[in-house]
Amino acid sequence: MTRAHDAGRRRFLKVFGTATGALVVGLPALAWTPDELLGQNLIVLDPYLRIEPDGTTVIGARDPEVGQGIRTAESRIVAEELDADWNKVVVAPLDLGVTDVGGEPHWTYGHQIASGSTSIPAAWNDLRIVGAGARELLLRAAAEHWKANVDNLRTLRGEVIAADGRKLGYGELAEAASRLKPDPKRPALKTPSQYLLIGQDAGDVDARDIVTGRQRFAIDNWFGDVLVAVIARCPYPGGKLAHVDDAAALKVKGVEKVMTIPPPDPARPLGTQPLAAGVAVLAQDTWSALQGAAKLDIQWQPGPTAAVGDGALAERASTALLGEPTKAVRTDGDFAETDKHAHYHFKAEYRIATVAHADLEPPSALVKVDSQRAVIVAPVQNPRATFDTVRRLTGLAPDRIEVKLPRTGGGFGRFLETDYVAEAVMLAKAAGKPIKLIWTRADAFAHDTYRPFSVHHLQACADSKRNLTGWTHRIASTSRLAGREPRERWWLSEMHPDDLPAGLVDNLQYAWYALDSALPRGSYRASSHAVNAFATECFIDEVAHGLKQDALQFRLALLGEPRKLAYRGHGGPVLDTGRLAWVLQLAADAIGWQKHETSTHGFGLACHFTFGGYVAHGVDISMEGRKLTIHKVVCAADLGRVVNPLGARAALVGATLDAFSTALRQRITVRDGRIVQSGFTDYPLATMAEMPNDVQVILVPSEERPTGGFDMGFPSAAPALANAIYGGTTARVRQLPIWPELLRLL
Amino acid sequence: MPQVPQSPPTTIVPEPIRRGIDVAINGQHFRHTGDPDLPLLWYLRDVLRLTGCKYGCDDRSCGACSVLVGGKLKRACALSMTDVADQGITTVEGLADSDGTLHPVQQAWIAEDAILCGYCQSGQIMAAVDLLARKPKPSDADIDGIPNLCRCGSYPRIRRAIHRAALAMQGKAK
Known about the structure:
The complex is a heterodimer of chains A (746) and B (174). With 746 residues, chain A is α+β, with helices and mostly antiparallel strands.
């Protein structure tokens, strides 16, 4: 039984008493709700925070956990401002928070998405207030109990402490606190010097469940009476079913039904519907469904446009880059004129392969749909997009759709899409039974929203004093916004006008050229930052070497005096060149850059500004014959204030190794209009033996606002590795993946 | 009170032969009477709901489904129920003591926070348990021999966790 106490419109926190005497606090976001929406404040919310009489403090974690450590970090933020005893904290994942307001969804928990390292900045804005508001109520409850002045009370680790040393536990105060009206004022937040949890290491809150096998990932859930579905999908983009014979499949014991899934509607955005036409086998268990799918006799009719591989796309790019750009992204000064009069000229072409997400947990979806409600349990990075897809397919009212947010075995952008959820909902509706849809590993490779392919033409020029005076970067890529947004917006995901060296070089051109491809593309860790930083940071290295300058000093000189440049994209509004120079210097010092000229090892550096975070990598390698050894890696990062350094280090090391793994050998290829790769055998993830032992993370102490940190460690890692390979071999690798190109050059 | 029969029965109807495959999983006995070709992976996951054993690939390459069969490290996806008949099987759910005390490898994983997404970790833990049974003091090269894949890049923490567990287990043995 919950009961709202303050029905006022301009309430700041929503507080509930419960029959068991618990204090329940929710709803921070509505303080910022525009006036016309204030009526919606009256909706009843599930709690972010519940304090039980025994002191157990349940903190709701709203953002999807995909390995970025958000459940831990955001509950630490709430616990900090509450002054909770962390040992009494239980973290409970929340569902998508949605209610029905006049037939439209109203999002009750604010930020709920795992994308672009945005969860921590959002939590910093509003979740601190949840904790602080509850703390204030507990203080006031204690003041009433002791008839004391609230200003003479303080809190520490789950207790209110009076001036004379008397103490009351939060659990003892919870019931009284739940009867208080929250103060309409914004509660006072701690000053950083008062932090006990923020900035201290915290292990993952799910660790014990994970090491004991009890943690339920998305794929580990069931409903009663469920049919397991496995789908044979058309391997040709836009293709359709020509013929199917399901007789053998239906003879498999356990198989109950075979159903078809129509091809995607070209008029509907990619990612909101199935990626391919399919034939689904519904069975009593996974093994029967898999066997049934294998026994389907299917002929597919290819779509109007055949998928082509990176080689063919590169040829198209060469042609495209000769013409006018689709979008002139930025033009400063006059590059052509400057180049004409320059002393030094540089030119290079970089090529970035199409890659797949390869999350270790494949897509799946457990779905129950009837006329009254839908329940969805799936790997989900974007719960609202999932909700939208389910709503469109079911027509259910907003509060009839439950989107669960189970822990997920990776994300990296794949689970921002909802194609697999759409498949399961369509099957559940048609079959009239709950569906547990399983994707095989081969399915996941054949039907991904791949990272775009790109070709980069770079040019630079320098004056007689070896100062960089001109720079152009022209990108031809298969934009991931194709199939989702109008063509004039496609460049937005592919090139950022304020990425460096813009603002550092007087005569600069950024331009983007559209490449068409029939393969679906989507978001991938750090998005185009990852590929553009590779081209930019490797080319800067080339220019430095060409000008016979030290690659570190050249970069530092280019970054110049610390100053704030305008940055219009995600991570802005400013880019502080001093913060980037500092992490670069730290990485260089820690990798031992001063010995790069005398050592037999190869050393490489790179830095990049991603989503508000400043990261530099230093890499130390050696090549003996065809054996690459990565001896040491340094990742120096300025992510603003770090909520959980242990988690941030895990994310930065992980991003570094993931970037190496992706850059070294991963690529998606196409033969006869279909994807070749079907497993980790032909799409190799790096193993422990291939990856360095020694990955040092340097976190810059900072008082700046937290940026989060899952994506930031990715973009500069691969160029630092390629630059180190150049240092060790003089082979300039201008392609991702690195390995096949390096073997060709050696 | 039941009556004790005074004389033996005149006819004996033999029980039907009980068909099926017997396995002992984490010390509990089960009889599988379904498809003998059913992979152990799907028996554990779909039938017993022991979902610590993860599905990750179709070609034994990822190791997310690693379990111990007769004390040996195996891929549950690559074994049929016939293959494991009459064997003792340990999954990640069976590593801790019945009182909840975690296996030193599990403790080391928590201490080193070797988690990230966590999906591969039960397989990594089983591989580490197997390695430490064979090599109580593993070198870095020994640890490099573990082929289990981690997409997130938790390898350095896994390595530290294995060294930590090795130390803890040696301390216990003394």
